[in-house]
Structures are given as C-alpha cells and as structure tokens.
Design goal:
Layout (H helix, E strand, L loop, with lengths): L10 H12 L3 H5 L11 H14 L19 H20 L11 H4 L3 H57 L3 H67 L6 H106 L8 H92 L1
Length: about 450
C-alpha cells in the first residue's frame, strides 16, 4: 500500500466526488467528512462500497440473497452475514483493478481512516479512468457506426455501378447488328481517311508546284515589263526619226493580242487549279471534324473503362472490410461468451463461498486465467483494428495512384489538343497564303488589262 501508483486525494475532494458521482438522494446529503475521519463509520463505508458496486451492475438486492436452504437454525445470523460477505467478495474482485491488493474483511467491519481514504481514493481514480475510457469508447462506437453507414452506402453505390457497367458493357441483341455495322463503317472511314490524307499530300505537292510556276510566271512578267519599257523608249526615239508603216504596226498588234490570249488561258488554268485546291481543303476540314468526333468517342470509352477499374477495386476493398468485420463480430461473440461464463462462475462462487473457503485459491487462479484469456482476446481485437487501419491506408494510396493516372491522362489529352491546334494554324496559314497569291495574280491581270 505504501508504493501506490494512484494519487491519494484529500478528504474534502473524496466527499465531494462521492456525493456527486456515486451516492444519490438522502445518502448524498447525509454523507459527510465525519463518516471518514477521525473514526470512520462502518455503515457509511459499507453503503459507499455497495453504491460503487451498483455502478458495476451489482444492485444492493443481490447482496441480501441467501444461497442456503431454508431449514437452517438461527437464519438471522446468516441474513446479517450475507450482505457483508457479498460486498467483501465483490470488492476483492474489484479492487485489484484499482491497484489495491490487500483488502481484508476488517476494512468493512472495523475500518480505519488511513486505509479507507486510500481505498476510496483508489476507487475514485479508477472511476475517473473508467469515465474517460467510456467517453473514448462512445466516440469510437459513433465513428464505427458512421463507418458502417458509409460502407453500406458504398456497397449500394457499388451495386448500382455494377448494374450500370453491365448495362453499358452488354450490348442488347437488337443493337448487335448496328454495332457490327458501326465497326465496319469505322474501318471504312479509317481507310477513306488514309486515302484522303494521301490525296491531301498530293494536293499539297501540286500546290507547291503551282506556286513555283506562279513565281516563274511572275519573273517572266517582270522581264516582259522591263522589255516593254525598253521598247517604249526605243519607239519614242525611233518615232522622232522614222515614220512606221501600217503593216508592221498591225503585225505587232496581232502579236500582242496573241500574247494577251495566252496570258488569259494561263490565268483560267490557274483559277481552275485554285478551285480544285479549295475543294480539297474543304474535304480535309470535314475529315478533321470527323476525326475529332472519333477521338471524343475514344476518350469517353477510356473514361468508362477507368471507372469500371475503380469500381472493381472498391468491390475488392469492400470484401476485405466485410471479412474483417466478420472476424470482429466473432471475437465480440467470444468476449460475450467468456463474460457470461465469468458471470456464471462468479454467481456460483457467491452462492457457495461459505462452504468452499478452502478451495477459494484454486478458483481465484481460474478467474485470473480467464482474465488472461480476456486480455488475449482484447489484444487480438486491437491487432484487427490495426489491420483495418492498414487497409484504409492502402485504399488511400490506391486513390492517390488513381488521381496520378487521371492527371497523366489529362496531360496526354492536352498534348493532343495542342497538336491539333498546331495543325489548324498551319492549314489556316496555307489558306491565307493561297488567298494572297490569288489576290496578287488578280491584281497583276488587272494591271495587264489596263496596260494593254
């Protein structure tokens, strides 16, 4: 008792605690400091112990039950002895949990002030600890119930998602023919797209050739403009000296008309080629729009596949949680059975305590063994709780991996969009250049017409 591991409270604190937490009604009002010090009253101490045992589901009526037969001489003596012995037995079972291992019958019948203060402070310390543990257990139960509700909601959502995935994956017989037709049409479209890409490449080559021809024609036109300017100068210089014949002028005019006709024919050919190139560009734009539609469909299929994989992983995790919950239930059932066995054995000991005082040590050892089994079961339960926490951590890691994969998919889609925008900009650039070339050719033809 000297090396106690619990604090010894003051008498005022003990009286206040037992008035508020243990005793009720008139008993709390009548309980005072004089019942403990300087000479504690046996009746008040026994009453306090009975109320403490009542907190642990041992009602005061249980202490007055006689386990003997009715044909006994002087039953009044037994009736006086049974409550004291019952309280003593129960307190001997309770106080080791409070770290008091030397409780005697003398502490009930003829208590002393120091020992009663120490015992009451030990019980007070244990009740504080019990209250804290009960609050923690209540919080854990609430969290466990909330987790159960979440698991039920998740299982419902998983079942609904499985049904939806089955509906999405299974093609009805009415739409199987359409699916086959769509597959064939997609294959044909891919083949046609490849052919059209080849056509576009050929058109680009022809456009480049046309550009080179136009550049050559522009160079020739500049040379001709220079030649005309020189001829004009020569004509001006010659007119001053020589009078030209009308036949030569007519021949030169006919030659100039033939040159104009040739230029018009080349212009018409260029216009036809430009029209053909514009048609090809429109076809290419249509094909690009169709390709975008197919890309969107492929992205939707990828997202649906990712959702199905997530649902499968959630189903596996739910199965693991169900198995762990079943193990917890089995362990809780074992705990209940052991507690019932303990209660039955304790009742039998309380009824046969007077007859079996000599065998009491053997029974105490059995009780200690049972408490050891209870501690082992509690340890198993803590291990299972740790397993559940590890599973929750693994689920968090899997979710983080899924998020990383989603970010990678988004990056790839962004890259594809940037590539597509780059292609659109290049096509627009080519269109603008073709339009500028057409405008320049029209301007040159107008100049030629005005000049001729």
């Amino acid at each position: 008792m000297a090396g106690s591991t619990f604090p010894v409270y003051k008498v005022d604190a003990i009286v206040q605690f037992y008035r508020t937490e243990v005793l009720t009604g008139q008993e709390a009002k009548l309980f005072s400091k004089s019942d403990i010090t300087p000479s504690p009253k046996a009746e008040s101490v026994q009453r306090v112990f009975m109320r403490v045992l009542q907190l642990f589901r041992f009602k005061p009526e249980c202490h007055y039950v006689m386990p003997l037969s009715g044909n006994v001489q002087h039953p009044v003596l037994y009736e006086w002895l049974t409550p004291i012995m019952s309280v003593y037995i129960r307190m001997c079972e309770l106080l080791p949990f409070c770290h008091v291992f030397d409780f005697w019958l003398h502490d009930l019948i003829n208590p002393k002030s120091k020992r009663t203060i120490i015992i009451l402070s030990a019980i007070q310390n244990y009740l504080h600890f019990r209250k804290q543990r009960m609050e923690i257990i209540a919080d854990d139960q609430q969290s466990f119930r909330s987790y159960k509700d979440r698991v039920k909601a998740y299982t419902r959502e998983i079942k609904e998602a499985e049904k939806k995935s089955e509906k999405l994956t299974t093609i009805p017989p009415e739409q199987q023919a359409e699916d086959k037709e769509l597959d064939a049409a997609v294959a044909e479209l891919k083949a046609s797209v490849q052919h059209q890409y080849q056509d576009v490449n050929a058109v680009n080559e022809t456009v480049s050739q046309c550009k080179t021809e136009i550049a050559e024609m522009s160079q020739k036109l500049t040379q001709r403009y220079v030649g005309l300017a020189t001829l004009k100068d020569e004509l001006v210089s010659l007119k001053s000296h020589i009078v030209e014949s009308p036949e030569e002028l007519r021949n030169e005019m006919e030659r100039m008309k033939e040159n104009v006709k040739n230029i018009r024919m080349s212009k018409e050919l260029l216009d036809e080629r430009l029209v053909e190139t514009q048609m090809l560009v429109q076809r290419v734009n249509q094909l690009e729009a169709e390709i975008q539609v197919f890309l969107k469909q492929l992205q939707d299929l990828q997202s649906s596949m990712c959702e199905t994989y997530q649902q499968k992983e959630e189903v596996t995790l739910a199965a693991m949680n169900e198995t762990l919950q079943k193990e917890l239930k089995s362990l809780s059932n074992e705990e209940g059975q052991l507690k019932r066995a303990l209660a039955m054995k304790l009742d039998k000991e309380s009824k046969q305590q007077i007859r079996r005082q000599k065998k009491r040590e053997v029974k105490d050892q059995q009780v200690r063994n049972i408490y050891g089994q209870y501690d082992k079961i509690h340890q198993k339960r803590e291990e299972i709780v740790k397993m559940i926490e590890e599973n929750n951590r693994e689920t968090k890691k899997l979710r983080e991996k899924m998020q990383e994969l989603g970010e990678k998919c988004n990056r790839q889609t962004q890259k594809a969009q940037e590539f597509y925008e780059h292609l659109l900009t290049t096509v627009e650039h080519y269109d603008k250049r073709i339009e500028s070339i057409v405008v320049e050719t029209n301007a040159d033809t107008l100049k030629m017409k005005s000049h001729f």
